[in-house]
Amino acid sequence: MRTFHIGGVAQLKTPEIKSKGKGLVQYVDLTTVSVGDKFIAVNGNGSIRLLNEAGSPTEEYRIVAGSVVGVEDGKPVDRGVLIAAWDPNSTPIIANGDGKIRLVDMISGVTFTEERDPSNNTFYKSVIEHSDEQNPQIQIIGANGKEVGSFSIPAGARVEVDEGDKVSRGSIVAKIPRQAAKTQDITAGLPRISELFEARPPKDAAEIAKIDGAVRFEPSIRGKKRLVISDSIGREEEHLIPHGKHIIVAAGDKVKQGQVLTDGAVDPHDILDILGQSKVQDYLITEIQKVYRTQGVVINDKHIEIIVSRMLRKVRITEPGDSDYLWGEHVDRTLLAENNRSINERGGQIAESEPILLGITKASLETESFISAASFQETTRVLTDAATMAKRDNLTGFLHIVAFASSRPRLLLKRSVEDGNQPPPARVGALF
Predict the structure, then answer these.
(1) Distance CA 241, CA 279 (A)
(2) Which is more confident, 179 or 27?
(3) Where are the beta strands (DSSP E) in 12-72?
(4) pTM for this predicted structure
(5) Domains along the chain?
(6) Residue 153 Cα distances to 94, 98, 216, 311, 314, angstroms
């Protein structure tokens, strides 16, 4: 909160990338096309790496579609060279081939309105909110009459072409406005911090790839676009995407597991399901630090790591086996490992589980100690549940000393340390 008290730090996103050191340029899944004397990035899933003399990557930058690329593949660059630049006000939709424009489901007053551009006094089509029955598209038809490319245009986008226009590969056919950059202080980032720590799914979350593979599109179903990813061994994963959502990959693009397919913030629960626990830890730490670092607030990663580890300490039972657990029950992963070890020694079937991500509030309320949970939040409910289920608390933590503000827990803890034994468990009725 320090930056709030001193007025905050201006935040304006710089629409360019410059190299931080010397290296050899390597394109990674990046396709460019020459337009005049410029190279334009056609796809939105590529990146540019800089390699050192040993061939190891020292820098890597994701390149958004429509960026003007300032370096060539395989050429050496020095420090401070422009890698790429882009329009900070809009995200372009780029033609992936040569042909004529065909507008589909572009209905005046229904899916678009005519608006005037005050800078040059011309009119353009602006896509508006519409029913799922319509799917405004820009199609590119090649010389042989076959479709070269098709782009679904989301609400708010500005169409830059008209029916029958001729376009070449790399031309801009539409622009999607970006959210305006603004000057803000730390308070503007606190809702994002709260969203991450509470593990809330973001509004209008992005779709991410479940497997590595190539992208293709199938006919829409139930008012949603069908994006299918197929890998080299024949596996396929289908993604159903609402028509109004902008897809940032094109047919034929190669994507990697966990790669973002649409606009929007990534849901950490999806990262956990698809990429696993270590990746969601990295994501949460990076996103939380991003908010603080932009304001000049320095926080050591270890503090956030401790909180994130508590958010991931529980697992959900998917197969109880010979244990006493129920399907869907949330269990501490350490306790589950101990119980499974005991079951395994007896020759029984161990319980199976899957990792889950809990917000800090829920994680605190689901602790094994009901005294600890009651001292945090929802005291009445926690104690009522504990009394109803005849729970016991071993009073093994220092939090109990603070919670009771009496000598009894201190004496129990001191005696247990001196004798090397656990203190006797406390029942709810005996404590209150």
Answers:
(1) 24
(2) 27
(3) 16-18, 23-28, 32-35, 38-41, 46-51, 57-63, 68-69
(4) 0.69
(5) 14-89 (2.40.50.100), 92-177 (2.40.50.100), 204-275 (2.40.50.100), 310-431 (no CATH)
(6) 12, 19, 17, 38, 42
